[in-house]
Design a protein that fits this description.
Elements lengths: L1 E5 L10 H5 L1 H12 L3 E5 L3 H16 L6 E4 L2 H13 L1
Parallel strand pairs: 1-2, 2-3
Length: 87
Amino acid sequence: MNAVWDLTHLQLRNIPLKDIQSLPGQLGRFMAQRGKISAALVTNRKIDFQLLRIYLTILRLIGKNVRIRPFNDVEAAYCWLQEKEAT
């Protein structure tokens, strides 16, 4: 199951740290239930895009095998998911 999550209306810097810290566990449970997924996270703010990149890098460094990628364009996000589905 692949998904595009449009986060353009969120300001990620306003999310409390405790909520961000709970994401790895939640993500792990979600992926265990859904199987192998790819998700594209779309934001139109540069700072949010950078925060997503940093967070996803940290997840990979601590061993979370996530297939999630940040985008600043919805069309590019859908193209990426189509490529993932083709492979």
